Amino acid sequence: MRRVLPFLGSEFPPVSREQAYFEIIPAPMEVSVSYGRGAAGGPAAILAASQQLDPLEEGSCPGAVGIYTGMTVSCRGSAAAILKRIEGRVFEAIRGRRVPVVLGGEHTVTLGAIRALHRAGQRLGILQLDAHADLRDCYEGNPYSHACVMRRAVEETGVPLMQLGVRTVCEEEVAFRRERAIGHRDAAVLERFPGYWWRPLPVDFPEALYLTVDVDGLDPSVIPATGTPVPGGLRWSEALALLWALSAGRRVIGFDVVELAPRRGDRVSDFAAARLVYSLMRLCLRTKRDFEIEVRVGKWYS
Ligand SMILES: [Mn+2]
To answer: Which residue in 89, 195, 92, 104 sits closest to 149, CA to CA?
Structure first.
């Protein structure tokens, strides 16, 4: 584990872990990258770019509640070992009543976060913004590939899932969506029927939400630096409006931003990803009112 630049450390004095509302967990995992490489550089690039953010985000100041940036999770060893470390760090954050903010790394890191929330006894639903469904059973021989992460999460924990902005799927994924009644508002549908965006989540969708944002869910013109870019994604303001609309009346209890693969000379992508993190913090605080997570401490293991 190593120290990194604290998120928005340029604007806010450091807070202790105990005082913080948000805990940033840098997780530069890159085991299963299938096309472009570089996701391991994502967390450091986001933290560096965050130094250029302004403290005000559309009139509010999310950083005022305290952002603690934890040590970088060691991403050496097997996927199983890395996921266990991420799970431990996320569990620690929620046990301390902090909102976990995981920075990837490949999308697989999300599985560690979902396992931790599930172990804590938190009933939750996932909103996933992504170009891909990530519902394959196995990809390139690896069940922990980034192309399989949401399937693992659903199979292991039964968590309800809503997919947003997807625009490339395979037959196996379509079948799994049907079998598990996975909600999806794919990019093509959003494009053709914009009104469809504003439909609230199903009434039985859990009140507590975890957001997983694969930066390739946005259009590659917004964040080009990602391993598997796909044209036809959401624009910046569309993506945020969609997440705001769908989380209305619900609580966002944690989130991740994954798959930024920074490239030399491309400051647009790094800064957009950092701003995305800060915007999502603002979204979390909208629903701060009754932020509580029930944690069964007895189930904690070290
Ligand atoms: Mn993904």
So the answer is: 104
Distance from the CA of 55 to the center of ligand 1, in angstroms?
A: 29
Looking only at Cα atoms, what is the longest distance across the chain?
50
CB count within 10 Å of CB 198 equals 11
> How distant is the alpha carbon of residue 215 from its chain centre?
9
User: Residue 296: is its pLDDT beyond 60?
Assistant: no
124-182 tens-digit pLDDT? 999 999 999 999 999 999 999 999 999 999 999 999 999 999 999 999 999 999 999 99
For residues 119-125, average pLDDT: 95
Q: What tokens does 123 get? A: 């009933």
Q: What is the CATH number of the domain that holds 110?
A: 3.40.800.10
Report if residue 3 sits inside a domain. no
Total domains in the fold of the chain: 1
Closest CA to 182 of 191, 173, 172, 190: 173
Distance (Å) from CA 147 to ligand 1 centroid: 7
By residue count, the chain amounts to 302
Mean pLDDT along residues 257-284:
97
236 located within any domain: yes
pTM of this structure: 0.93
Does the pLDDT at position 277 exceed 60? yes
Question: 224: closest CA among 187, 257, 280, 263?
Answer: 263
- Which tokens sit at 65? 């509640």
User: Any idea what the Cα angle at residue 77 is, between residues 300 and 273, rounded to 5°?
Assistant: 80
In a domain, 16, yes or no: no
Which range (7-16, 118-127, 162-171, 291-300) has the least confidence?
291-300
CA of 59 to the centre of ligand 1 (A): 31
Domain extent, residue 71, equals 22-299
Q: How far does the centroid of ligand 1 lie from the alpha carbon of residue 214, in Å?
A: 5
